[in-house]
Structure formats: C-alpha cells, structure tokens
Please model this.
Amino acid sequence: MKIGIYFKRFSRLAAEVALKVAEECSRRNLDVYIERTLIENEDLENKDIVDLMKKYSVGVFKLETPGVDVIAVIGGDGTLLRVFHMLGNPRIPIMAIRMGRRGYLLDVTPIEISDRIEDLTKGRYKIVEYMRLSIRDNETIYPPALNEVAIVSIGMGRSKVIRLKIYKDDKPLYFMEGDGIIVATPIGSTAYSMAAGGPILDHSLKGFVITPLAPVQTWLRPIVVDANSKIRVLIAEDSQEAYAIIDGQFSVKLQPGRSLVVERHPDPAKVIRFHDIDNAYERLFMRL
Model:
C-alpha cells in the first residue's frame, strides 16, 4: 500500500505528527511518499523533520497527480480543504488527522495514530463519501467546494449591500439585497451557513442549503433544495461588485451582470472513517 503524507505548513506540531505517521507506516512495510511542496517550500523551521521523514520514504508525490492509495493529511479544516481543492484524483481517500479541537472530518487524533494505521492495514475502516459543489461561470470552472460557496460583499472599511437574483433550475427563486448568500453542502451546513442561521442538514441527505446573509428583506429564510438542482446567482446590474469565496480558501471577484452556477459535483470527497459516524450530532455539538 502506498501512503502519501501532507501536513500543515509552518506547523511544528503537525510536522512532528507527520514524522510519527511515516515511522508507523514504514514499520508496517507500507510505502511512504512525501508531498512535493513539503520538500521544496521555505518552511525552514521544519526542515529537520522533513529530512528525517525522507529516511522512511521511498519518494515524493504531487497532490495534482498523486499516484498513491491513501493520503494522510495532518492539520485542521483549512489544510484538509486545501488538499481536496488541489487533489487531482478525487477517487483517492483521505485519512485525516486532527490537530485541533474542531475539524469534523478529521477523524484521527495524534495519540491514535499507531492503532489507526494498524486498522488501515487490516481493512478496519469505512470510506465515506461527502457531496461537493461544482462552481462555474461562463468563462471558468472553479475548484469544487466541500463546505460552501459564499457570494458576499466586501468593502473597504465597511460592508456594502449587494443585489442578487437567485434562480433554481432557471426559474426565479427570489431577489435579495444584503451582505450576500451561502450555498452549502450537508457537511458545510455545520460551518459558515450554521453560523449565519442556516439549518443543520443530515449528512445522508442529498441536497444543499441556500442561506441569505443579513438580507434587507427580513422575510427571507434559508431554503433547502434537492441535490439535482441547478442554482444560478446573478449579480444585478445596479449592484456593487461581489466576491465568491469557496471554502474560505479561494476567491474571485464578480462584477455586476456576472452570474455563478452552482450544482452538485460528480465526484464526492472520500474520507476514511474509523469511528462510528452514527453519532455525528453528538460529535458536532461537543465541538461547538
């Protein structure tokens, strides 16, 4: 089995945990590969650990063209989301190792590493698929979103009201003025959307939620739509410019008159789960 390792850059703790992963994998005769940017970047603080990891590795891999069976990701939500955005082969499952208190999809804690890698070699795990969002306009296809895409106003010094027309399957859903909207997946419904007053969707549901942000029209409420829906968000001609922010990692400026189409992505994110996922709500509320 080929195991790729990627950890949060400039984090000493994450680098030390990554070294532990490399040691445990090598001890079980698993082929260890280090992600290329960890070797080539300017993270001088962790250069000594990366050099130690090389003793256990048989080569390097690229997230864009991984060529491994499993990728162990060590860090937090941002690190995991970054990997999913960069991953060239969505069929490769991720073993996520959590470095903080939150991190709903990061299933493994550092003290569990030895046991979980043993479980991995014995096949004692599940691969759970999580829906992602496809995001495009007339010119560009953007990175898929695991959590959400937020179309928001960002002004210098203060937020500016933007005007949006929302369509579902090419039929008008509503017109809104406010700070923007969020289109979130079920897993993303527990993130930014929830903080904005949106509902929590059960992860088994095939749908996504549209959550308005501070709308002038106070009657507007979040709407849950079927996963097969096509949502189009049009920036009105008389609106301020807006920004589309994907999973808090990637942003693009949207001028008035431009629209963004959001649909279900054909390739879900694949996450290795070792623990009981039926207690999802208990785990969620413990971390709030």
